[in-house]
Specification:
The chain has ten helices and ten strands. It is an alpha/beta fold.
């Protein structure tokens, strides 16, 4: 589904602050894979998502999604086929618009009440009820009045209302309290599995990296240092990941955020 070939990215090129963050990076994801991605701050995880989504254009290399070369395709056009959630629950939805209007926009039905039919409203209500967050009774309320967990769950539904070819989850539960994060992760798993979606999920929680999905990738300094799936992955522990990081990078993991989660 996704093929990244020989990507190189330099920030601030031609200046004293020039920094190469990726060099000849290649990565492939098969259709239907759910890949969890871990790595310390600065490992290149978000840069990888940015170059896939089109918010960063690479210096060289190519990106092919479902057989189509999207290397130079603008971000807004890629968004038709790539769904993305961010760490900040405030991103991904329009706070001044109602829950119903946000869903109408994501469904491609205009976003204005006059354009939403009774059948649409029934559909929205049924989908919201599956979230088990009471949103089906708050369809007229502005999204800006929702809690972080409610808003992130709604954004997840919006990103997958019309199933994308690729779903990018950029630490989408990091800003939520543990109980809400667990509920959103369970919802994520269900939506990805039911839709047979191809999904990449960045996480700092190493336990989640092994428990969710069917493949785990570890990044460091703009490259992949460990990639595991199948039986090998099933038998791994968090301690095993720490050892693999040490062996591959030559140093101990220093990210308190990863170690504490």
């Amino acid at each position: 589904m996704l093929r990244i070939s020989n990507i190189s990215i330099t920030f601030n090129p031609g200046t004293v602050n020039a920094k190469k963050v990726m060099d000849d990076f290649s990565f492939e994801v098969a259709r239907g894979q759910f890949v969890t991605i871990i790595g310390a701050n600065g490992a290149g995880k978000s840069t990888l998502f940015n170059v896939i989504a089109g918010s960063v254009i690479s210096d060289s290399g190519s990106i092919v999604l479902d057989g189509e070369d999207i290397t130079l395709t603008p971000e807004y056009k890629r968004s038709r086929h790539i769904g993305r959630l961010f760490q900040d629950p405030m991103r991904g939805s329009a706070p001044g618009m109602s829950v119903e209007e946000n869903l109408a926009l994501s469904a491609g039905r205009g976003g204005w009440l006059s354009r939403v039919s009774k059948a649409d409203r029934r559909d929205f209500r049924e989908r919201l009820a599956l979230l088990d967050l009471g949103l089906e009774d708050r369809m007229k309320q502005p999204v800006g009045l929702l809690s972080g967990g409610q808003r992130q769950a709604l954004t997840l539904m919006m990103a997958t209302f019309n199933p994308p070819k690729l779903l990018l989850l950029d630490e989408h539960t990091a800003a939520l309290d543990p109980a809400t994060a667990e509920k959103v992760l369970a919802l994520t798993t269900r939506i990805v599995e039911e839709g047979s979606l191809t999904c990449l999920m960045i996480t700092h929680n190493m336990q989640s990296a092994l428990a969710l999905g069917n493949r785990t990738v570890m990044m460091d300094r703009g490259g992949i240092i460990f990639d595991t799936a199948g039986k090998e992955r099933a038998g791994l522990t968090v301690e095993d990941l720490l050892v693999r990081f040490r062996n591959a990078s030559g140093r101990d993991l220093s990210s308190d955020r990863m170690l504490l989660t």
